[in-house]
Amino acid sequence: MPANTGTIAHVEAFGLLGFIGSLVVALLILRYLLLHPSTPAAQSHFDRDLPGAAQSLFDRGDLPGALDAVQTAIELAELAMPVGRVQLANLHVLQGRILEALPPSRCAGGTCTEHAANAYRRALQHTPMEMMEVDGGSKRAASDALERISSRLTGASAPYVEALFDEYAETFDDSLGRLGYLAPSLLAQAVSNALSSSHHASPVGSMLDAGCGTGLAGIHLRPLTQRLVGVDLSAGMIQKAKARESVYDELVQAELLSFLQAHRASNREPFDAIVAADVLNYLAESMSDVMSAAAHALVDGGLMAFTLEAPTDANLSERTSTWQWTVLPSGRYAHNASWVAEEASRHGLELLSRTPLPKLRMDGGKVVPGTMMVLVRRRLVV
Length: 382
Description:
By secondary structure, the chain is an alpha/beta fold. The chain has 17 helices and 9 strands. The protein has a 7-stranded mixed β-sheet with strand order 3-2-1-4-5-9-8, with helices on both faces. Strands 6-7 form a two-stranded antiparallel sheet.
């Protein structure tokens, strides 16, 4: 009987504990079986071919079941199973295909399309360099799919960014330390220089750390202002920032554009400076809106300083000077600094300085180049 088959399978899942030697693995398999007790494909393949079960469910149109199966297979592979990196890359490709097939709104923490793109990026990360020529199947599939769906992405959605950084909050500081993250100190020095050259009083009255994260930039900005406000979309990041004593006077969990617009609507005192370290590279079409909102949140003569990522395609700027932004393999966005300056100028923010950064940080063993820009707000005619 089906009920007995399920019961036996559940007992066998516990029996795997001694064979695999990992309670975590047994619980992962058990979780899958409990969620899908009447799925023949899963019960016949879970112990030796869960990827095959995922593919079978996908082919039959059972997308939720297929997604559960492939995600369980990935967790098992990463935790305990002796699976090679190419096999893991193939699992991520299958995960991406399943996510692409789901309606975009069916996924939590961003759209299914965004999660599919992330799965393809992980496939590329897990394909060893020495295997690119020998077995490029997963790499080609992931690269083609990523190129195909990138044209549909016009900036990272707020839920996706929130989920991403909530997950990343615990290891954020250590990770960026290993990546040689330079943006906070570089921006603080640029703001300090701009304040000195424009004869601003120092420290200024108030400053916004836009996308403050765990407060890495706040440490450097604190000496430059009497009042430091931090805003970030991630609750996890805000909690980490709160743990830094005597850095922030106020911390707000909010999406940046919404925060800036609400700040203006509530007639709160404008900021003397807005600083965004490694934040605007998650924007695409909304860049112009953010520039407009930032201009209205600044005092006359106030500063806006930020970093941008440069394109990894060295020929992009040579092919055309009119490009605005492009999706990077990391899922972030590179921007044409000239276009950003033009958009900022349209909203009353004039370019004060533009500095190429040969090394913004490392990512995937490669140097990430960027640009640092400082803008000043002219008097706006409302």
